[in-house]
Write a structure and sequence with these properties.
The protein is built from twelve helices and twelve strands. By secondary structure, it is α/β, with parallel strands linked by helices. Helix 4 runs parallel beside helix 12 and helix 5 runs parallel beside helix 6.
Length: 343
C-alpha cells in the first residue's frame, strides 16, 4: 500500500471536522486497508464493496491524504491559489506578487484556474485539500457543498478581492458596493448626465453596478442605460458594446466599464468612429492595469492594491498558529479612483 495511510488528523466528520479513513471504513463496513486499496486502485476491490466505499466517502465528505507517507501532521509548505482565469484578468498583479513571495519563502504554489464552472471549482479545492495544503487562496463564489468541504478542512481558507459577511477563514479585499458609490460620485462631480454602465456577469461586478446605480439615482438622476458582457470580459466585447451605444436613443456621455481591457476596447472603437475621448464620449475602467496608464488617452480607473492583498494573505499564512483562525477575519485594503484623460 502506497500513498494512503490512516489520516493523522484525528477529527470526526460529525463535528464539522475532517473525516478520517476510519470514518469511511466504519460507514462502509470494511477495514481501513480495504478503503486504502480502493483509493489507490479501485479495480482491485469487488464492485459491491467499491460501491459501498464510494457512498461512505460521499456521506462523510472524506478527502484522501495524498501526501506520501501520510506526513500530514507537519506543514506541507504548499499553498493553493485558485482564480477564475488569467486572460485579461484583474487578478494578475495580485497573483504574481503572491506567487513570487510565497516561492521566495520556500512554499510551493498550486495555481488552479476554476473558470466559471462549479464542478471544476469543487474538483480543484478537493485536490488542494487532499494534498494537505497549508492554505487555499480563493477569488470565486462558493457553493454550499464546496463551503461545507472547506469548513471540514484544517487548511486556512483566504477569500481575496471581496469582504463577505461571514468568511470561512479570513477575507482580504474591499467593498465593491462602495467602489460603485465612488464611481457614481465621481461622475456627478465631473458633470456627466447620461452614463452607460457595462457590467460583467459576476457577483462582484454586480455589487459595483448596484452601488453605482443606487448612488446615481439617489443623487436625483434618471437610471443609467446598461449592458452586460460574459466573464471574463474581453477587449473584443467592446465592439458589440460600442455598436449598441450608437443605437441608443440618446448617446451616453460616459461609458463605465467593468475592466480596463473593456474600457480600452471602447476607446479604440470610439476613436475609429471619429469620436473624441473624452469630449464626445468619456470612458471609465476598473482595475488600474498597466494599460490604463500607458495608452492614449490614459484611462480613468479604480485602483486596488493587489500587492497589499498578496502581502496580507501571506502574512496570515505565516502568522497562523495551529488550527485557530486569525483574530482579524476581515482585512479591508480599500481602493482609490485614479482620474486620467479618458474621463
Amino acid at each position: 500500500m502506497t500513498g494512503i495511510s490512516a489520516d493523522p488528523f484525528e477529527l470526526h466528520a460529525g463535528a464539522g471536522k475532517a473525516a478520517t479513513l476510519d470514518d469511511v471504513a466504519a460507514r462502509a463496513g470494511v477495514s481501513t486497508a480495504t478503503v486504502s486499496r480502493f483509493i489507490n486502485n479501485p479495480q482491485v476491490v469487488a464492485q459491491a464493496t467499491a460501491e459501498r466505499i464510494r457512498e461512505a466517502i460521499a456521506e462523510t465528505g472524506y478527502i484522501p491524504n495524498l501526501l506520501a507517507g501520510g506526513l500530514a501532521s507537519s506543514k506541507s509548505k504548499m499553498v493553493a491559489v485558485l482564480i477564475p482565469y488569467l486572460t485579461d484578468s484583474i487578478f494578475n498583479d495580485t497573483m504574481q506578487t503572491m506567487v513570487e513571495e510565497l516561492s521566495a519563502a520556500g512554499t510551493t504554489v498550486m495555481l488552479g484556474l476554476t473558470g466559471v464552472s462549479e464542478a471544476r471549482t469543487e474538483d480543484l479545492i478537493r485536490a488542494a485539500i487532499s494534498r494537505r495544503v497549508d492554505a487555499i487562496i480563493f477569488t470565486g463564489p462558493l457553493t454550499p457543498h464546496v463551503e461545507a468541504m472547506v469548513r471540514r478542512s484544517p487548511a486556512l481558507f483566504i477569500q481575496v478581492w471581496d469582504l463577505p459577511e461571514d468568511p470561512i477563514g479570513i477575507a482580504v479585499g474591499f467593498s465593491h458596493h462602495a467602489a460603485g458609490h465612488d464611481i457614481a460620485r465621481f461622475l456627478m462631480s465631473r458633470g456627466y448626465r447620461r452614463p452607460h454602465v457595462v457590467t460583467a456577469k459576476g457577483a462582484r461586478a454586480n455589487m459595483r453596478r448596484d452601488g453605482l446605480v443606487a448612488e446615481w439615482v439617489a443623487g436625483g438622476n434618471a437610471a443609467p442605460t446598461e449592458a452586460s458582457v460574459e466573464v471574463p470580459s474581453r477587449f473584443g466585447h467592446a465592439r458589440r458594446i460600442f455598436a449598441e451605444v450608437r443605437r441608443l436613443d440618446h448617446m451616453p456621455d460616459v461609458v463605465v466599464c467593468g475592466s480596463d481591457y473593456l474600457a480600452q476596447g471602447v476607446i479604440v472603437e470610439a476613436l475609429a468612429a471619429g469620436l473624441r475621448v473624452p469630449e464626445d464620449i468619456a470612458v471609465v475602467g476598473f482595475g488600474n492595469s498597466s494599460i490604463a496608464g500607458e495608452m492614449r488617452p490614459t484611462i480613468t480607473s479604480v485602483e486596488v492594491d493587489g500587492a497589499r492583498i498578496a502581502r496580507e494573505a501571506i502574512a496570515a499564512i505565516r502568522n497562523r498558529a495551529g488550527a485557530a483562525l486569525p483574530q482579524e477575519r476581515w482585512i479591508d485594503v480599500g481602493f482609490r479612483l485614479v482620474a486620467r484623460e479618458s474621463a
